[in-house]
Amino acid sequence: MHRVAEILETTPVEQWRWVPSKLNVADGATKITDQTQQKTWITGPGFLKAESSHWPLPTKQESIIDTSEIRKHVMTTRSRSAVTFNAHCFSNWRRLYRAVALILLFVDRLRAKLAEQDMPAATMMAHVSKAKMLLYKQSQAIAFAEELKALSVGAALHRGNRLVGLNSYLDNDGVLRTRSRLNSIDIAEDVIILAPGCRITNLIVRSFHEKYHHLAHETAINDIKASFYISRLRVLYKSVHSTCYDTRATEKAVREQLKNIEHDKITIKFDGIKWRFNPPGAPHMGGAWERIVRTTKGILKNICPNYSFNDEGLRIALIEAQFIINSRPLTFVSLDTEDDAALTPNHPLLGSANGYKPLPKEGMYLQRRWIETQRFWDRFWQRWMKEYATVLTRRTKWFEKVPPITIGSIVVIVDELLPRNLWLKGRVIETMMAKDGQVRRVTIKTQHGVLERPATNIAVSDVGLEDGN
């Protein structure tokens, strides 16, 4: 191969002549032939003794130059791929983009050194912004490769594409965004599109989760939507919340942030809580807890109708009342033996309706016992959502709305402890309306002063203001 190449470089093609394969004496050393080539091996083929004009000429199918052993130079080109960052090595969004910003700082320092310019000493806002853009583009290049290819050449997305309804486009940095109507009035910047299954997206959502200290989930989701469009965001945020190690510790530190309650006959103080009191004579507005108070009173009366409790006796009686109340069924009591027992408040408190806990099986190790406990609570939760949660949406009274009490109405305050001819009369000076548009409590100016009463204890008189008079 090297000899052929050297001959081709040092001699012109016109000096070459052709030797047919059957007359090639070199084949005697490399091929097995029936003819003896001892003579031609030394003297060469016989046509060399004739005039050169009688030498054989190559046919059209054959070439004078045999290039079969010439080395072929194959030129290949490879496009330079973008640098990718392994986001799985990071568990925090800030640490990830700060690490990328340090790489960009290093590149800028090298360029400044080659140009004999002053080198930057620390990362700047430009490095951080560029680092975030690079990470956004890396995330999009993995999840939206086809969409980026189409948008980069100005082509429209096909009708079945997942981004066709988002009015997506590429900004000046090559980042995929969705064009919002709010941009036309300069209220908000177009948000960046991210895929929910990407590690970078997961870290971004986790950063918002940590920003709000593992609380205020709806606020965090609303904040994310202001900067990013992530499909199935609520599902992703729920997954981040459930896998967050610090969430449980945070929630536990909240039932611990309770301050001491300072109370007396006049004031009750509790940091961070806005107290709302029922108006006098309206125990029904207490809802569930007032119903429990009534039940407790009834149980105490039935335990000992004529007994005057001391401290110890009252404590024992209240414990008994507590057990009875928490043993009440919350769901339908089935008489079928194959059905489970009705759910009671004692189930989440004690594990069963009566507080009985079966002894662990002999030889059951700790991990197995923990698995059995998880199965029990999973079963309880399924029953709770199926059998009890649906009952909470039922409404048994107050189906029809009544005209709300208005300011200026002349009313009579119902007081069951007084005869009707002694019930106070007055004028409504303030009303408090609930979310359903109904007035729940009113402030009344009477001859004995200003009183606050529930709307259920108010009787509106036919006389009052009319046409502003």
Walk me through what this model shows.
The protein is of the alpha+beta class and 469 residues long. The chain has helices spanning 2-10, 27-30, 38-43, 93-114, 125-143, 145-152, 199-211, 217-225, 233-243, 245-254, 288-303, 311-326, 346-350, 366-388; strands at 168-170, 176-178, 191-194, 228-230, 262-263, 268-269, 409-413, 425-433, 439-446, 449-454, 458-464. It folds into 5 domains: 1-77, no CATH class; 89-253, no CATH class; 283-326, no CATH class; 346-393; 409-464, SH3 type barrels, CATH 2.30.30. The protein contains 14 helices and 11 strands. β5 and β6 (268-269) form a beta hairpin.
Secondary structure topology:
Blueprint: H1 2-10, H2 27-30, H3 38-43, H4 93-114, H5 125-143, H6 145-152, E1 168-170, E2 176-178, E3 191-194, H7 199-211, H8 217-225, E4 228-230, H9 233-243, H10 245-254, E5 262-263, E6 268-269, H11 288-303, H12 311-326, H13 346-350, H14 366-388, E7 409-413, E8 425-433, E9 439-446, E10 449-454, E11 458-464
Parallel strand pairs: 3-4
Antiparallel strand pairs: 1-2, 2-3, 5-6, 7-8, 7-11, 8-9, 9-10
Helix pairs in contact: 4-5, 7-8, 7-9, 11-12
